[in-house]
Design goal:
heterodimer, A: alpha/beta, about 50% helix, B: mainly beta, 4-stranded antiparallel sheet, 28 strands, about 0% helix, globular, proteasome (chain A), MIP18 (chain A)
């Protein structure tokens, strides 16, 4: 389990009506606002976390397994600690994390994402959505949201 | 129906490749052509593929239904006549395809849901269609002449994303399950007045996380639900369905919970004609369960018959028994493939 500390400077207004993946991301389009949201420290930490995950689970190929092309499944859990209370931001950061994991790790990695307990008002709701792959898949089909996530991960 | 004696296993018959993204759902044509029929699959690649057993005995892709849905196709269902295929998509629409020989043509598009449609199901007579979506509603559509469909009711009640709808095998009773952890039973009061007659498991015996799927047994007096809470739950109705005067909702009660068998989310469950329950889960495995013959104090119980680890390289999203050959099972996965399995005895 790896702890991921996420500092965020909450400058603008945030639509906090619900904890669903935001479908309207118009207000985040301005480059300066994006920069505010996805600060370099966050990106570096996401990168460190992924590397940590890979290092914590080295793959040991046994002769028998290699012949059978049976690669062991790795199951891990990542906890992130958003320092802001706003639910929609935690969900968005969690989504960036989820996408980074999907793109960086082999498919046999099954990772559960958790908001650190006690730090967030609606952590159960945030966790549930981040770990619902159908909800994540649907959210990422929203081109605006995907563009936002992409610019966070590759500024 | 006599089951095979001895130790059983799922033997892989064939791996079907073609989809370019995860495969979400499968549906066997109830009538089909030839001995074992026709299989429809739907995918994140926005297409639906039709698979049929060729003269050589191997399954081939006989059609690709594309250029209609603009997003993931999440679920598909054949009408009881086998002539129509309904496909539900994240694009918010449900398309109706008509099969003419080997070709498919989109003859209707059902719009109305506010966001991603998750599931579609036909009733036993083919006169009604049900769909559900992330907008928390269940819609009931009436099939009219000329491939027209009219929405007759919008069912509110779920407090979150509805994951699946399924009609009772012969009564016009609809069950829906979802992200709010609930299982809801809906019936009609006459004159398109549909309402929720029961929400299962509220008194503590219910699921404690998202319910992903449900399946009825062939007798229609039991159903099984599967969940993110890692359990399967069997429910049964005390009312004899053939004795009801059309209400048929019965009074569903919790029969038993199968826990300790799965360690990751169970996405799919399907009850075969022979009484075998297949489950597909996020640990890449397929499991089969059957009612245990050893009775203790008259309490029905279920046991695991087969566990097929690494059935796929990634999550198993759908498991579906063939409707005509009860030992044939199809599975679909995040790895983009579909597999055909045969239940057989382990050769000693």
């Amino acid at each position: 389990m790896i702890l991921f500390d996420c500092g965020f400077d909450n400058g603008g207004d945030i639509d906090d009506d619900n904890d669903e993946f935001p479908s309207k991301v118009g207000k985040y389009k301005a480059k300066t606002e994006l920069h505010h949201f996805c600060s370099l420290p966050i990106l570096i930490r996401i990168q460190e976390m992924v590397v940590g995950l890979l290092n914590a689970n080295p793959i040991v190929y046994k002769k028998k397994e290699r012949r059978a092309r049976n690669v062991p499944t790795v199951i891990d859990e990542v906890t992130f600690t958003p320092t802001i209370e706003h639910c929609s931001m935690a969900t968005l950061i969690g989504l960036c994390l989820r996408v980074k994991l999907m793109r960086s790790l082999p498919s046999r990695y099954k990772v559960d994402i958790r908001v650190a307990p006690g730090r967030h008002a609606t952590e159960a709701e945030v966790n549930k959505q981040l770990n619902d792959k159908e909800r994540v898949a649907a959210a990422l089909e929203n081109p605006n949201l995907l563009e936002l996530v992409d610019s966070c991960l590759e500024p | 129906m006599e089951l095979l004696d001895g130790e059983l296993e799922l033997r892989e018959i064939q791996k079907l490749e073609g989809h370019t993204d995860r495969v979400w759902s499968l549906a066997w044509n109830p009538t089909g052509t030839g001995v074992a029929g026709m299989l429809a699959s739907c995918s994140g690649d926005k297409t639906v593929r039709i698979w049929q057993k060729g003269p050589s005995g191997s399954w081939d892709c006989s059609a690709v239904l594309e250029d209609t849905h603009t997003r993931t196709v999440r679920s598909c269902a054949w009408s009881p006549s086998g002539k129509l295929l309904a496909t539900a998509s994240f694009d918010g629409t449900t398309a109706i395809w008509e099969r003419v020989g080997g070709e498919f043509e989109c003859v209707a598009t059902l719009e109305g849901h506010e966001n991603e449609v998750k599931s579609v199901s036909w009733n036993a007579s083919g006169s009604l269609l049900a769909t559900c979506a992330r907008d928390k509603t269940v819609w009931i559509w009436e099939a009219q002449p000329g491939n027209e469909f009219e929405c007759v009711s919008v069912l509110q009640g779920h407090t979150q994303d509805v994951k699946m709808v399924q009609w009772h095998p012969f009564l016009d009773v609809l069950v829906s399950v979802g992200y709010d952890n609930s299982v809801k039973v809906w019936t009609e009061d006459g004159d398109d007045d549909w309402h929720c007659v029961q929400t299962l498991g509220e008194a503590g015996s219910g699921h404690t996380s998202t319910v992903w799927a449900l399946s009825f047994n062939s007798a229609g007096d039991r159903m099984v639900t599967c969940s993110d809470d890692l359990t399967l739950k069997i429910w049964d109705t005390s009312q004899n369905p053939s004795e009801t005067s059309g209400d048929g909702s019965g009074s569903w009660s919790h029969l038993c919970t199968l826990s300790g068998y799965h360690d990751r989310t169970i996405f799919s469950v399907h009850w075969s004609r022979d009484g075998l329950i297949a489950s597909g889960a996020a640990d890449d495995a397929i499991r089969l369960f059957t009612e245990s013959k050893d009775r203790m104090v008259d309490q029905p119980s279920y046991k695991m018959l087969v566990k097929r680890e690494k059935a796929h390289d990634m999550d198993v999203n759908s498991v579906q028994w063939n409707l005509k050959e009860p030992k044939l099972l199809a599975s679909a996965s995040d790895d983009g493939t579909i597999k055909i399995w045969e239940l057989s005895e382990v050769s000693k």
